[in-house]
TrEMBL record:
<dbReference type="InterPro" id="IPR001701">
    <property type="entry name" value="Glyco_hydro_9"/>
</dbReference>
<keyword id="KW-0136">Cellulose degradation</keyword>
<dbReference type="Pfam" id="PF00759">
    <property type="entry name" value="Glyco_hydro_9"/>
</dbReference>
<keyword id="KW-0378">Hydrolase</keyword>
<comment type="similarity">
    <text>Belongs to the glycosyl hydrolase 9 (cellulase E) family.</text>
</comment>
<keyword id="KW-0119">Carbohydrate metabolism</keyword>
<dbReference type="InterPro" id="IPR008928">
    <property type="entry name" value="6-hairpin_glycosidase_sf"/>
</dbReference>
<dbReference type="GO" id="GO:0008810">
    <property type="term" value="F:cellulase activity"/>
</dbReference>
<dbReference type="InterPro" id="IPR012341">
    <property type="entry name" value="6hp_glycosidase-like_sf"/>
</dbReference>
<protein>
    <recommendedName>
        <fullName>cellulase</fullName>
        <ecNumber>3.2.1.4</ecNumber>
    </recommendedName>
</protein>
<dbReference type="GO" id="GO:0030245">
    <property type="term" value="P:cellulose catabolic process"/>
</dbReference>
<keyword id="KW-0624">Polysaccharide degradation</keyword>
<keyword id="KW-0326">Glycosidase</keyword>
<feature type="domain" description="Glycoside hydrolase family 9">
    <location>
        <begin position="1"/>
        <end position="135"/>
    </location>
</feature>
């Protein structure tokens, strides 16, 4: 989302003198993502991730440790750099929702960093690998111009799976589990 805002409002960030700052923030996140898998390979089948609140609550992975005297992510909401207790890191072999979000973030960040060709190529390659793992086409099409990504992102099957044909009150609403509106 932050990369998207820079893509859309780059001139505003420049006028406010914040473009360099926001790019540093985006780079911090994308560098972290690239460290969670071997981004130099052509395919991956494993991703390392922290068991975060998102995964505990939405996916039901991990232990919230209610009543525990030990700190955990539910009771210690703070900046990651201030956390001084152990954080679980696990391997993920079927976390396509997480990986699709990462592919989107990395591909959109590659557009933000188009003035840094080497970093952009690194991000696009990482996004392609993540796409293969999870499939995340619209932003990869935008980042690369490769129409096969657009074709995948606009297939009837994908729209049907996202609930595009049944309408409903939430169709077209951007949320954690529906990014079709952005595509």
């Amino acid at each position: 989302m932050l990369s998207w805002s820079v893509i859309e409002y780059r001139a505003k960030y420049e006028a406010a003198g914040e473009l360099s700052h926001v790019k540093d923030i985006i780079k911090w996140g994308t560098d972290y993502f690239l460290k969670t898998f071997n981004h130099t390979m052509d395919t991956i089948n494993t991703l390392l991730h922290r068991k975060t609140i998102y995964l505990r609550i939405i996916v039901g992975v991990g232990d919230a440790s209610e009543g525990s005297l030990s700190p955990n992510d539910l009771y210690c909401w703070m900046r990651p750099e201030d956390i001084d207790y152990p954080q679980a890191v696990t391997e993920c072999h079927s976390c396509s929702d997480l990986v699709a979000e990462m592919a989107t973030a990395v591909a959109s960040a590659s557009i933000v960093f188009k003035d840094n060709k080497a970093y952009t190529q690194k991000l696009v390659h990482g996004a392609k690998i993540l796409f293969i793992f999870a499939r995340g086409g619209a932003w990869l099409y935008y980042a690369t111009g490769n129409s096969s990504y657009l074709k995948f992102a606009t297939t009837t099957g994908l729209a049907k799976h996202a609930g595009a044909f049944w309408g409903g009150p939430y169709y077209g609403v951007l949320s954690w589990d529906n990014k079709l509106t952005v595509a």
